[in-house]
Amino acid sequence: MLKKLFNINPGEGLPTLILFIYYFGFVAIVITGSAARDAYFLNMVDRDYLPLMFLAVAIVLTLVIEIYSRLSKNRDLIQTTTISGLVFAFSLVFIQNQLEGWVIPFLYVWMEVITVITITQFWILAADVFNPRQAKRLFGLLGAGGALAAIIIGSSIKYYVSLFGSENLLFATIGFLGIVILMANLIRPYRNTNELKIHSTKKDKKQQSDKLFTPYLKSLAVIIGLAAIVSRIIDYQFKMTAVAVFPLQDDLVNFFGKYYAITGIATMIIQLFITSRLLSRFGVLIAILILPISLMIGSLGFFLSPILAAVFLSKFSDQVFKFTVHNASIQLFWIPVKNTIKTKLKPIIEGSIRAGLEGVSGVLIFIVVTIFNTPIHYLSLSIVLISIYWIKKSFPLKELYVDALQSAIEKRQLNFEELTLDIQDQTMVKTIETALNNSLKRLNTDYIDLYQLHWPERITNTFGNRNYQYFNDSWEDNFEFVLLKFKELIKSGKIRKIGLSNENPWGIMKFLEYSKKNLPKMVTIQNPYSLLNRLFEIGSSEICKREEVGLLAYSPLAFGILTGKYFNKNIPKNSRLDLFPRLKRYSNENSFKAASLYNDISKKYNISLTHLSLAFVNDRPFVTSNIIGATTIEQLKENIDSSNIKLTDEIISEINVINNRIPNPSP
Questions:
Q1: What is the pLDDT of residue 206?
Q2: Spatial separation of the C-alpha atoms in residues 552 and 498, rounded to whole Å
Q3: Does residue 342 contact residue 200 with C-beta atoms inside 8 Å?
């Protein structure tokens, strides 16, 4: 039933429900807390200071996030979420009982802190629960929980105010914080902790610091920054106009509640039915232009007729389009960016730079409106000018996006797993097709002889980790779907044969089973195989021998360990162990010990360790090809010469003795 209605697979229902309620609670916190803080500030503090609060928010957020990052580092996220949630709740209890003086502007800033930290914790937990494939199906549903909260809570505020008064609205916020804390603890059993976490090395960090702000990223930062500036100006106009129309605090709170309900309905409709279709049909350029054009139209309306209905249109566009079509487009723009660069720059661009520009906007608004007594609707002229510049900068951004996509495809850096929503951009699809065709042209061929899948999509014990624990990753069986797509490509003439990589016996047999349904057969498998890793022999070798699936053995020299150059733990500069220190499976104590014993055999029979290692792989009956690698001509010659060496039964016997003594030290 859940699968049919919401595309939820077995085992996903309960964690999805918990996170749905979690996100519902978060949005309820934002709505009740923001409505309260805005109404209190506008009614109890000099409104001229509102722009300066934007600056205060930017400064405090930067400091608090840095402090939070340091305090939460290497701590359990759920424990951190619980503690911070309790701190937020007790602080709001104090504020609720002290609603006067300095407490009001403090609340204005504090609500922004609560919002940013709470949403960050939510998405990190959600990413721990669902893998990228699940996220594409389910994150849209979680987002709908937020839209539902906006509708229900926004519509209910007026009833709450009539019963308890707007001065007690923070108690509702405190209650929703309790729901968030509860959901965070309920989701604990569903977090996945088996996936490999790759940490940056000093070399990685150095590479990240080189040429980070490319023209493409500068252009993207400009668009994000312009959106932040315009959003702050519209927010100021909206709040000042609203308080002028609704001077009573209860009426103002009710109006804000109605606004959140209306935007919630619109956001849900656009996110569920329009965003993906718009991007698929018209591409990212049209999608990115919707927000500035709508804001420009709304601002022109407010300039010509400075009434609440006119500025409501601008604020409505900013809230609805920014969190649907615009955010989806920005997400697509990040896809071609290399992960190491993205990890470093995305928080800077979308966090520090955006917050800084919002703060600067607040100062400028204060100067223009308060010091020079400029009517607030005149600020709309600046929005129109910024929007025109925004639109102008969007066109070169799209061109740079296409170039970045092509470059990422060619360098195999394009990672669709980074997308958290199942959306396609027409530009991306066309660019990928163009890039693939260009690759064929550069290879001076019309087809690919052998196309191999690089990794299984499901989470499995790819490298023979000992004591591996399987968990429910809710992977969907898509073997037949993959083969159907390959059938289309083979029919088009662009691919001749297909194969696998890093697959285990079960995966091999599943593909072979489906191929009997008049679908293409996997004819090769590219897996690691060497003297230090003979796991392929245990389950896969018989399958490949009997089913005629040839092994293309990679790492036959075990990352260079079986050349002897790392003996005495000497790691030459720019060697593979120097360049990739995180791959510890090749450099453990048993690997060096086994390699040393194999070296003794090579010396005994007067052949090099490299020749012994490669000749052994060449000799296996299930091996079709031995994938060698070389840095120098001398290494290449030595590798090729191994094809002329035939190991005797005596040598094979001595090799097996060592394998029995130290089996598979580099799985």
A1: 43
A2: 13
A3: no
- Tell me: pLDDT of 464 over 70: no
DSSP designation for 337: S
CA dist 501 and 140 (Å) reads: 32
| Residue 349 CB-half CA count within 13 A | 24
Strands 448-452, 522-526: pairing kind: unpaired
* pLDDT, tens digit (0-9, with 9 covering 90-100), for 249-291: 999 999 999 999 999 999 989 987 888 788 878 888 999 999 9
For 444-582, strand residue ranges (E) read 448-452, 495-501, 522-526, 550-553
Residue 411 DSSP code: T
Handedness of CA 196, 200, 203, 206 (dihedral sign): positive
Q: What is the dihedral of CA 508, 511, 512, 515, to 10 degrees?
A: -170
Q: Cα-flanking dihedrals φ and ψ of residue 241, to 5°? A: -70, -40
Q: Answer yes or no: are the C-beta atoms of 647 and 604 closer than 8 Å.
A: no
**pLDDT level of residue 485 (50, 70, 90 thresholds):** confident
Is the CB of residue 613 less than 8 Å from the CB of residue 534?
A: no
Question: Residue 119 to residues 71, 146, 191: CA-CA distances in angstroms?
Answer: 17, 11, 17
Cβ atoms of 254 and 153 closer than 8 Å: no
* 3 state SS of 306: coil
What confidence tens digit (pLDDT) does each residue in 419-434 have?
A: 555 555 566 656 656 7
- Kindly tell me the sign of the dihedral angle through the C-alpha atoms of 123, 124, 126, 127: positive
CB contact at 8 A, 23 and 143: yes
* Residue type for position 26: F
Cα–Cα separations (whole angstroms), residue 32 to 38, 58, 254, 449, 603: 10, 21, 11, 61, 77
* CA 152, chain centre distance (Å): 30
Cβ neighbors of 561 (< 8 A, separation 6 or more) are 532, 586, 587, 591, 592, 595, 666
Can you give the pLDDT at residue 259?
A: 95
Query: From CA 88, how far away is CA 161, in angstroms rounded?
Result: 22
Query: What structural domains and CATH numbers belong to the chain?
Result: 10-191 (1.20.1250), 209-445 (1.20.1250.20), 446-467+477-661 (3.20.20.100)
Place 43 in a pLDDT band, splitting at 50, 70 and 90. Answer: very high
Residue 23: exposed, middle, or buried by beta-carbon count in 10 A (0-12, 13-18, 19+)? buried
Nearest to residue 103, comparing CAs of 32, 29, 36, 160? Answer: 36
Contact indicator for 299, 443 with CB cutoff of 8 Å: no
| Structure-block tokens of residue 278 | 């718009």
**Residue 663 and residue 465: Cα distance in Å, rounded?**
13
Backbone φ, ψ for residue 195 (5° rounding): -75, 145
Note the maximum CA span of the chain: 97
For 449, the 3-state DSSP assignment is: strand
551 has which bridge partners?
525, 623
The secondary structure of residue 367, as a DSSP letter, is I
Nearest to 430 by CA among 405, 455, 411, 408: 405
- Given a contact cutoff of 8 angstroms between Cβ atoms, the answer to whether 327 and 290 are in contact is no
Token reading at 128: 């721990």
Phi, psi of 495 (to 5 degrees): -135, 140
Angle among Cα 253, 259, 260 to the nearest 5 degrees reads 95
> How many residues appear in the chain?
667
| Secondary structure of residue 24 in the 3-state scheme | helix
Query: What pLDDT was estimated at residue 473?
Result: 55
Give the DSSP H or E segment for 356: helix 354-365
- Integer CA distances (angstroms), 14 to 19, 127, 183, 188, 476, in order: 9, 16, 11, 12, 18
What radius of gyration, in Å, describes the C-alpha atoms of the chain?
A: 30
CA distances for 265 relative to 144, 276, 420, angstroms: 10, 17, 22
